[in-house]
Amino acid sequence: MGAAHSASEEVRELVGKTGFSSDQIEQLHRRFKQLSGDQPTIRKENFNNVPDLELNPIRSKIIRAFFDNRNLRKGSSGLADEINFEDFLTIMSYFRPIDTTMDEEQVQLCRKEKLRFLFHMYDSDSDGRITLEEYRNVVEELLSGNPHIEKESARSIADGAMMEAASVCVGQMEPDQVYEGITFDDFLKIWQGIDIETKMHVRFLNMETIALCH
Amino acid sequence: MFLLLPFDSLIVNLLGISLTVLFTLLLVFIIVPAIFGVSFGIRKLYMKTLLKIFAWATLRMERGAKEKNHQLYKPYTNGIIAKDPTSLEEEIKEIRRSGSSRALDNTPEFELSDIFYFCRKGMETIMDDEVTKRFSAEELESWNLLSRTNYNFQYISLRLTVLWGIALAFTGISLLVVGTTVVGYLPNGRFKEFLSKHVHLMCYRICVRALTAIITYHDRENRPRNGGICVANHTSPIDVIILASDGYYAMVGQVHGGLMGVIQRAMVKACPHVWFERSEVKDRHLVAKRLTEHVQDKSKLPILIFPEGTCINNTSVMMFKKGSFEIGATVYPVAIKYDPQFGDAFWNSSKYGMVTYLLRMMTSWAIVCSVWYLPPMTRETDEDAVQFANRVKSAIARQGGLVDLLWDGGLKREKVKDTFKEEQQKLYSKMIVGNHEDRSRS
Fold it and tell me: Which residues cross the membrane (chain A) (predicted)?
């Protein structure tokens, strides 16, 4: 009984820190144990056990995001080697649904956090800017599965998109002005109008405890 | 009566009498019905009583939990993610539509927001994926008094513990007696066909009773006939016993050593089964040839095959291997669905060995399952083996109420094949390149 008691205290702490409900935390804990093979930490190799993830073209970026120190709030660059359950929940909390009881300010804060997560996914060298190279890299990965697209067309798609992004952020550029890259503020401008806070969340099934009526 | 018994001690006399009574009961209630295929309906009564007890037990547990003000663990049997069936294209278009200042460009080539769809999908699969959860035992919503299926074991009250202990002891003793009888009935010499069929049948029926299996057969007029192939979904080695106790089949499998090997060799003497050496299993043409030969001989029994290739936990049906569907014989599909409340029949071979598994089967309350014989199917002229296999699989999944998955059961031990990985990427890139070409043309 003693073990059960301290476990539920931990759960309450995690509920406060990450915003998931205690049911969801229990479920995620079992998933964590399944992924880690009952170890206390997860490494990159453990994600190879999820077959559905293999289909995802940006799987390496997603896995990397789990170990990114910026997402784990442990530093401004670099990768961790392994993460424990609390770190796992921290990353998952970027995808939790928006609480309807939140006020406008909190919603904006949530939105910024989620967008920052996406920004980190693009900005792989942690310099605070998405350069043309990094942008190309993402487009190439997304299109990498198709053997019919040559590298050249993937590049030109990326270049075209980058130019559009530049026109949104900077407006008209002088002919010899070099566009260094998309900063986080520019990134926010591009995403204006897309209500990502209602779309960027994992759709949990609504499970209430079943009532027995007899 | 006391004059007849040679022993003086009262205790020994009593023991002798009780053993005689026990054996007589055994003979009357188990062995004789097994030989003639008749049932007294005792097991059905037993099943009804158990159900009532489970409902009562769950109530007590909930009450116990409420008193201590703790949350009960509620298992989510369908996973925790509500997956909408929208396609890749729809989702990305929706996100783009809500973007800013896109009045001029109707079909933009690539957006920063596109990454978002894949990102979310990736997160969802990390949280819960369709495949991995098929390879662990199914979770029940109410408890069936077996501590192995319950995560809330700490809330059990004293009364439940006593009931559990007594029932377990009783089951153990009676099964010991039945088990020894089973071993004595294995066929070991040459039998004529008629005799061999009945011996097989009797043996399986006794096994069924040893496991206290309560089986309901549906649509028995569709039972497999000679020269056909019977396919079924696979949950455990018990599937074989369940199907073979209601019909006559020729088995297919690999030659084993030890006890299994002895049984296999003995069975082959009675009627022709198809056993492959380990080396022959790799050679697909040889396997196909032998199966075809067997099927074309109308005097031989129908072959029993499990095309999934491995044990699945009975919530879904996974990809059928196309080998048995290429032969061109009539296929008789059979759906087997176990009721998990009475004991989980799934064999997790990485967790339990065969002996441990059988012990668990015997010590669970009962094995309750339904078997549906589906009408026979043949391959149409315009479909290939894979499509035929999928058609049969869907029919089985529909009848048994199981989820129909395209995934390969071999994923239990291996990785995803590269051909599957590229599908999603091709779809997305087709979308973008299509737009790109339109642009450059205009």
Answer: none
Residue ranges of alpha helices (H) inside A19-103 are: 22-36, 59-67, 85-92
For residue A173, is pLDDT > 80? no
Chain A contact for B401 (CB, 8 A cutoff): no
Domains and CATH numbers, chain A: 3-100+196-206 (1.10.238.10)
For residue B310, the distance in angstroms to the closest alpha carbon of chain A comes to 17
Top-confidence residue, B162 or A41: A41
Write down the mean pLDDT value for chain B. Answer: 69
Whether B28 is in a domain gets the answer: no
pLDDT value of residue B334: 92
pLDDT at B115: 73
Domain count, chain B: 1
Tell me how far apart the alpha carbons of residues B144 and B150 are, in angstroms, rounded to a whole number: 8
* CA distances, B188 to each of A176, B205, B402 (Å): 94, 18, 40
* Residue in A24, A58, A203 closest to B118 by CB: A58
pLDDT at B164 over 60: no
Q: Which of A26, A38, A54, A152 to mutate to test the interface with B (most CBs of B within 10 A)?
A: A54
pLDDT at residue A5 greater than cutoff 60: no
At residue B81, φ and ψ (nearest 5 deg) are -105, 130
Q: Which residues of A touch B426 (CB under 8 A)?
A: 145-146
Q: How far apart are CA A29 and CA A31, in angstroms?
A: 5
Average pLDDT over residues B363-377: 83
**B54 vs B250, which has greater pLDDT?**
B250
Highest mean pLDDT among A40-44, B261-265, B433-437: A40-44
pLDDT at position A2, please?
41
Instruction: Please tell me the distance from the alpha carbon of residue A40 to that of residue B404, in angstroms, as a whole number.
Output: 34
* Number of neighbours of residue A9 by Cβ within 10 angstroms: 9
Task: Kindly list the residues from chain A whose CB atom is less than 8 angstroms away from the CB atom of residue B409.
Answer: none
pLDDT mean across residues, chain A: 75
- For residue B372, is it within any domain? yes
B77 touches chain A (CB under 8 A): no
Segment 174-203 of chain B within 8 Å of chain A by CB: none
Classify residue B369: in a domain, yes or no: yes
> Which residue range forms the structural domain that includes residue B196?
158-412
Beta bridge partners of A68: A79
Q: Closest to B132 (Cβ–Cβ): which among A50, A147, A212?
A: A50
